[in-house]
Write a structure and sequence with these properties.
Length: 159
C-alpha cells in the first residue's frame, strides 16, 4: 500500500496538530502489507480447494471468517453490497441521462455472510471427509475390477 494512502488514513484519526514520524508510517505500511498478504493467502487457499483461480470478494470475507476476524464481516459485507449497488446503478444510466429501473441496481447482488470455515486441522486437511473415511479411501477397500480398480491404486498420490 502506498505510503501516501497510509499517511492520509492516519491523519484522519489523529488530531490536526499531531505529527507522524516517518518510522511510524513505515511500520504501519509493513503491518498493513503483512495483514493483506495473510488474508489473501488464506483466500487463495480456499479458492485452491475449490479448484478456482480467481479470488473474489466473497473469498476474502470467507478467509477473514476462517481467521477469526468475525467482527469485520458484517461491516465489510454491507460496504461490498453498497459498492456493488452503486457500481451497477452507474451502468444503468442511459446516454440521455435517464436512469434505468430503480430496483435493477441491487437485484441479485446481495452478498450473504460467508459460511463458517473449517476449525480443526483435520477438517482443513480432509475437507468434509472424516479421518476414518479418508483412511478408507486411501486403503482403497472395495476395489472394482477395472484397470484402475486395483488395490495398489492411490487416487491421492502425487505424480
Amino acid at each position: 500500500m502506498p505510503i501516501a494512502n497510509i499517511t492520509r488514513i492516519m491523519r484522519r484519526v489523529l488530531p490536526s496538530h499531531a505529527e507522524i514520524a516517518d518510522d511510524a508510517k513505515e511500520a504501519i505500511q509493513e503491518y498493513v502489507s503483512e495483514f493483506i498478504s495473510f488474508v489473501t493467502a488464506e483466500a487463495n487457499w480456499l479458492c485452491h480447494c475449490d479448484y478456482r483461480r480467481t479470488v473474489t470478494p466473497e473469498d476474502v470475507l470467507a478467509a477473514m471468517a476462517s481467521l477469526g476476524l468475525d467482527d469485520y464481516l458484517e461491516p465489510l459485507t454491507l460496504f461490498l453490497n453498497k459498492h456493488r449497488a452503486e457500481q451497477n446503478s452507474e451502468q444503468f444510466v442511459r446516454q440521455g441521462g435517464d436512469a434505468g429501473p430503480p430496483m435493477a441496481s441491487t437485484m441479485g447482488y446481495y452478498v450473504p455472510l460467508p459460511p463458517s470455515a473449517a476449525t480443526t486441522k483435520e477438517e482443513r486437511d480432509f475437507g468434509d471427509l472424516t479421518p476414518a473415511i479418508h483412511e478408507y479411501i486411501l486403503r482403497n477397500h472395495g476395489c472394482g475390477e477395472g484397470s484402475s480398480g486395483g488395490c495398489e491404486f492411490d487416487p491421492f498420490q502425487k505424480f
